[in-house]
Amino acid sequence: MTRDIEIAYNMAMSEMKKRPPVVVVMGHVDHGKTSLLDYIRKANVAGKEAGGITQGTGAYEVAHNGERITFIDTPGHEAFSKMRARGANIADVAILLVAATDGVQNQTKEAIKVLKQTETPFVVAINKIDKASDADIQNVKNQLLSEEVFLEGFGGATSYQGVSAKTGAGIPELLDLILLAADVEGLTYDPETDAEGFILESRLDTRKGNIANVILKNGTLRTGDNIQAGAARGRVKVLENFLGKKESMLIPSSPASIFGFEILPAVGDKFIAGNIELKDIASATTAKTKAVAPAEGLTILNFVLKGDVSGSLEALSGIIKSLPRPESVHVEIIGEGVGEITDGDVKSALANKSAIIAFRVKPTKAAAALALASSVKIIQSEIIYDLVKVVEEMIKTGTTLKIVGDLEILALFGKRSGKKQVLGGKVVAGEIKNSFVLEMERRGEILGKGRIINLQSQKKDVAVVASGAECGMLFESDTEPRVGDHLVFRQ
């Protein structure tokens, strides 16, 4: 290196600033990832916290010993393996979480594989050490050794810490290890360059438009910047931090929500923002296609998929495409989209004889009315595997299970006796027969199933009630019905 080059290099390095680490937690679904993240949030974040099972990718910042740490919150469910792998690619440091009570499981092995493939530095957190009677930390260490994870004191240099996501024991020490690992990596950024980062998640808000959740890795992100991520481009109209507060600018490793993309960016895409020239790039987004004409002896099952965010839609699509099926059945995804189910989705499903599979989204009033009138099947659930089970049943039967009868509950009579309830309703489509096993739906979501024990019309026992007629019934179900629910029979 010549003297001039060395001076230029030193000047450039002097302008670089230290960047907080971006951290992802990976491990088996039941080993306490969400509990660990919840505890860290509550102990280190002043503001709102999210709870429950995580099924969409987000990020948040915490403060520890005067330094910032950004956590990427990726789903633990095995259906979201691509999203977890993407999180490891974006992260600077990972926490491999293993329960002291269960040891290394299949998803633990998957996480180890991803971390090694992406060459992501990681520390090990052995959780549930508060369960004294069931915890076996030594066994966990031995199992990790068999997976070629060499811990400190076991022939390796991988740091580990016993923790309890319930009591908080060991968590401050775990955060210390994360900051130490980040220091070893020497994370820096250039505040004067164009902003760069990754799309964590994207969704469509009916009031605000396209929203992208991002993680900033370099430069300074400002309101008014041009921004491009693959085929998606636009201008940063509104910039919010992870607490939903509007900001004029953010620096790495800040999580942010960006309003202003003309189309939804793809999850995992890199973005660049600043005084940049926007380019026309062909979109790789799945477009709506026409249904395949069935060959002789071949059954075609067509589906329109809808999801709340891009990542979960990707997971649902991937699972359905990979489901085993007989050679006589072909599954075709006619369209995929983020956001609520529209009448356009219903029209597409009707034209292509498709069922609509919707994850964590509901139909508009117009779409629900059109679907009911045209007998388009909409299957909606907050749990991805409930949807998968329905699709598996369709593949097994070779049909998308058309609505045979649909009754709207108009009144409930008396108190519920165990699992039984006397109710009154109106058949709004098809017909309802005595002893039918019906699905209970509430605002398009399947809540469970039940059976008609007794069916009456005009105060007389009947075998069937046709569309447009009112009736009463004794209905048995694990789920308590409400006025406005629909009882649906499909075949």
Number of strands: 28
N-end to C-end Cα span: 76 Å
From the spread of the alpha carbons, the general shape counts as globular
Please bin the fraction of helical residues. Answer: 10-25%
Task: Briefly note the structural class of the backbone.
Answer: alpha+beta
Percentage of residues in DSSP E strands: 35-45%
Uncertain segments are 7-13, 46-57
Task: Describe the 3D structure.
It is a single chain. By secondary structure, the protein is of the alpha+beta class. It has ten helices and 28 strands. The chain has a six-stranded mixed sheet, with helices on both faces. It has a six-stranded antiparallel β-barrel with strand order 9-10-15-13-12-16. Helix 8 (343-351) runs parallel beside helix 9. The longest helix is centred in the middle third of the chain and has 15 residues, at 171-185.
What's the arrangement of secondary structure elements?
Layout: H1 3-15, E1 17-18, E2 22-27, H2 33-44, E3 58-64, E4 67-73, H3 81-90, E5 93-99, H4 106-117, E6 122-127, H5 137-146, E7 160-162, H6 171-185, E8 188-189, E9 195-205, E10 209-218, E11 221-222, E12 226-229, E13 232-241, E14 249-250, E15 255-261, E16 270-274, E17 299-307, H7 310-322, E18 329-338, H8 343-351, E19 354-359, H9 365-374, E20 378-381, H10 384-397, E21 403-417, E22 420-433, E23 437-442, E24 445-457, E25 460-461, E26 464-466, E27 470-477, E28 486-490
Parallel strand pairs: 2-4, 2-5, 5-6, 6-7, 17-18, 17-19, 19-20
Antiparallel strand pairs: 1-8, 3-4, 9-10, 9-16, 10-15, 11-14, 12-13, 12-16, 13-15, 21-22, 21-28, 22-26, 22-27, 23-24, 23-28, 24-25, 24-27
Helix pairs in contact: 8-9
